[in-house]
Amino acid sequence: MWMLLAGCIDPYDYPFKEQTNYLVVEGAITTQPGPYSVTLTTTRNIGNEENAFKLRVQNAKVSITTSTGSVVRLIDQDTSGVYYTSGNFRGQVGEKYQLTIVLENGESYESEQVELLPMPDIDSIGIEYASQKYISQANTVIERTGFYTRAFINDPPETENTYLVNWDYTYKIFTHPELATAYDAEGCECWVATPKACCSVCWVEEKVPDFTIANDQLNNGSSVTQYDLFFLPVVGIMLYEKIYLEVTINSLSKDAYLFWKSVYDSRYGQGGIFDSTPNTVEANVYNVEDKDELVLGYFYASEVKTISRFIHPTDFPERIDSDTNYPDTCLFYPNTTAEEPEYWNE
Amino acid sequence: MLRFLLLTLTVFTFLSFHSFGQQISDVRIDKKFESEYLTDVLSQIEENSSVKFFYDPAWLGNVRVSGEYSGASLRSALEDWTANTRLNYHFYDAYNVVLYLRSDLLSTLNLAGLKDTDFIVVGDSTNAVSGTAVSVRGTIRNGQTNEPLLGASVYVDELASGTVTNAAGRFSLQLLPGDYHVRVSHVTLQQEAKRMFVFGPGEFQLDLYEKTIQLEGVTIAGQAPDINVKGIQMGTVQLQVEDVKKLPAFLGEVDIIKSLTLLPGVSTVGEGTTGLNVRGGTADQNLILLDKAPVYNTSHLFGFFSIFSPDATDDVTIYKAGIPANLGSRVSSVVEVKQKSGNKEKFGSQGGIGLVASRLMVEGPIKEGKSSFIVAARKSYVNYLFDTFIKVEELVGNKAGFWDLSGKLDFSLSDRLSLTASGYVSKDNFTIANESSFDYQNGLGSAELGYVFSENLLGGLSVAYSDYQYQLGDLQLTDPYKVSSGVGQLDVKADVTKYTERQTLQFGGGTTFYDFKPGHRSGINADTQITPVALPEQQSQESFLYANDEINLNETWSVMAGLRYSMYRSYGPADVFVYAGERPGRTSTLTDTLQYSGNETIKTYSGLEPRLSLRYSLDEETSLKASYNRIYQYIHLVSNTTAITPYDIWMGSNYYLMPLIADQYSIGYFKNYDDNTWETSAEVYFKDIDNLVDYKDGADLVLNPTLETELIQGRGMAYGLELLVKRSKGKLNGWASYTYSRTLRKMEGADRESTINKGNWFPSYYDKPHDLTLSGSYKATRRWTISSNFTYSTGRPFSVPENGFLFDGVLVGNYTERNNGRIPDYHRLDLAFTLDTSLKIEKLWESSWTFAVYNVYGRKNAYSVFFKDTADARPTAYKLAILGAAFPSITYNFKF
Questions:
Q1: Which residue blocks in B55-214 are alpha helix, DSSP H?
Q2: What is the pLDDT of residues B36-62, one digit of tens each?
Q3: pLDDT band of B360, cuts 50, 70, 90
Q4: Residue B8: how many other CB atoms lie within 10 Å
Q5: B-chain residues near A14 (CB < 8 A)
Q6: Among the four given CATH numbers 3.30.70.580, 3.30.565.10, 3.40.50.1000, 3.55.50.30, the one describing domain B1-107
Q7: How many C-beta neighbours within 10 Å does residue A79 have?
Q8: Is 0.85 exceeded by the ipTM?
Q9: Does A326 lie at the interface with B, CB-CB under 8 angstroms?
């Protein structure tokens, strides 16, 4: 409707006025192998990208105290403001962690104790063919087809469960290196055939920068809860053989979920009539001396579980043209490898 | 001169027919007449007595007589029978009665240049009273429908005072015999100005006609031309639908509610939004009444169109200040939308065909002269356009549509008793395929019984019902669901109005039962996995008693004083959660649950609401006015979005949520120039609101059983200056208004989460300090009218991130303050051309074409500005414009 009425979204240069630099903490302890990092930066002026490199907070003393009493020091090896645990430290389900930071100027900060909540088993990932319309940057409506995905998780019905979800996928493509040509600038000043032996088949490993968050507010109470995750757009060349989809789900506490929701809204919110007005979720890290000081970011702990599945051409009801028609090696495609990944034939 | 000759002839004729027997004083009338010709009645009297009547039959041609008489004297009967005619009578002697046309005996007066339709004669000019005040009574009717007009103003220039008609169209004035200029006006009709010669007690009847037949342009705010100066009301404006129809409208759909935003002090949050912001109030602080029934959602398609069909609506009145004590319940304004009554004499119809919707209204008598009906319907065909003509791939599956149906029945049960019943239903559907849907329904009904105890005493009893239901569907998910919410209320109200020469005293009371349905979630598919959730309904009752007296102390001072006492209780069945600590907070723990059984009182609130208005006339065309009102508001719209949206929840005051209490003070200076051709006014106001509801940062309001933990209450303050210059006569008319206003709030709670902006005053999201409106129309020819609006206002506030921080590669905005920035200023120009196709006064088929362009220069006015870090572009602010182009439209309207 908004589109019909020529509604549109345009970039708008707003003169953001920064008044204070606030400390920003980003850190997580998971059950995946370490080392884990805690990044200390400060807020940045929106629209002014020049200050991006002055923002790291160096020379701080950072440590994590576990509920079992051990203290883990984090080291900033290259003064980048990123502090690492040692490689052998690993998060444990049920354990609580507290972050302590002492800045160079002596100000000291503490986080709340965050509990590493268990991630229930993921039963499976379901897919459903669908089309999705979205408004592009050029304010045109674009339709794409693909799959809605959902996770079935065996989580306890009595508690409210909240998750952070990431995903990657890999697919095989087919090109025509034997048809490669090159421009002969020295000789005939024309295009000449330069057939190549390698490579006609590659695997494209897409690292998706997107994330989503999920909660069971809608359908808590069942022993297997269904969570809608994300839309995976699919084009024909991705279905030369099949798509490998890997979904990683992190357990989140309710508070950590609310923080992640504010990050989510910052990226995916629309500013429309129905959107609630934005707000800042404060960090769970406080200045020990001055509890009113605004600290941003979050420190949380998650158990991480991963599940994968394949999507086959038979799942996709459209006519598939999987040939890239690309007259060169498939290695020229971004994020490609000619080596078959070990999970490809699992 | 011809008439004089005729009279002379008549006089000579009767001399030769002298009779004997029963004389005038012996005649007693014992009979019931039902619309009999006066000539027949007079013949009957002649047959039964020795009395003879002398007249020219042409004068009595179609004068009819109705009424029941038992033992009435001939004098009183003739008084009645000639009352509404231009006839007068004279008892020549004991047996002979002369009937004559009044003007004939006025030849002694200097009537040079006056047509006989220019003056009114009251009393017996041959038997003039002198020295003592006599009663001048009369009836004002709508000449087209012959219906009595309520609220017509009868104003006597020489006295600088007047009166208004009651529900029977009757009025009464005490005047010394003499020569007066009287002006009779009514909001919807053309004013009549007459010379009035008062010789003695008497009556007259006057019919007013619609304005359309005049070669003048659009008039906004009818009423008497000087009501702004002479009336006690300030901050009150009445708009005639006939006039609103001539304003440029978005996609040609006449919008009564949107037209209010052209007035000073009334604004909206943005295009495509429901709700008005009146003098710094939120959208839920306006009581919008259709006849007597409150309307919760006044818009179709999110506020692009109002739900009121222009063909079935008479007028709309907005009270921004000096609200009389009979009105209340909302702290910012009362908007009364009056449905038209059907024509009791003849059938008629009108309608229109537009780009988005078409409408039809049919009206007519049920029993001629006694009762009438009116039915109006409207249906949009946006879907049909989508599917048939536009065929835009992107829009397949999207739906937007509405219909509404309204009707009113009007019965004159007797001379004294009238009954009106009106009803309204509407339905809206809006679906974005695979994304979301929003449906809502309004159902309204009211019945009103009016009783005329005596000429000066009227009683009214009304019952009203309103039901608003809305459903929000989330269709993005593979398992779609909807959340249904609603609110319903039932009102009973009784009023008595007593008119005396200098006072209008009104008193009464009423009660309202509310039923709030805060939310119910259910899956849409048959095999849904969605867990159904239903928040319990809440019940409450609001009651009031009031008295309001409007007194014209003398020619310079008038005062309106009123007092209203309102009381409210929320009652069970309900469970109330008790929290540790003083106020419920997010982190505070539940310590107890209080269980209330059915009808058990949970919490009561009550208060006195004084109202006072003063008017002081400096001279004929200048007055100073001041007003104060206090109003309690017991129900709230809880929202954390800028516009009224389906996420909002209506709720009553309860164990935690306290009623709003607003005090408004305003003063104004009103001056007219050039025989009321130019009206000017300046008003200033200050408003103080207690217990204003706001939400905590990050509040989750949907289906939240502990909503009290997300809400805070604080103070609101609004002040402003409203300037208006208006020209309401002539070919070119319209107005220019400028408003400077601020609306601020202060939320200082016990802890950080219940404090906003560090407890400092901060602007409300609809704070728009500068607001300029130019609205005009020009009657270029008899057929063509050109009208135009221009509005400018400061951009509304929004929350700007002070800076941002990177988290997981996303730049997240850091919002340290609420409403600390402003979106770009808003301005827009609209144009409309109306072509009247028929100009005869007695036309059978009237029609007009309206060509309009909304947003002529296609400005992409911002609806909102928001910060976003998209994955594929630099993190920055974005501007959302809902209407980004000029919207032309064409509408055909007809009436027969």
A1: 57-60, 74-83
A2: 888 888 888 888 888 888 777 777 777
A3: very high
A4: 11
A5: 800, 821, 865, 867, 876-877
A6: 3.55.50.30
A7: 9
A8: yes
A9: no
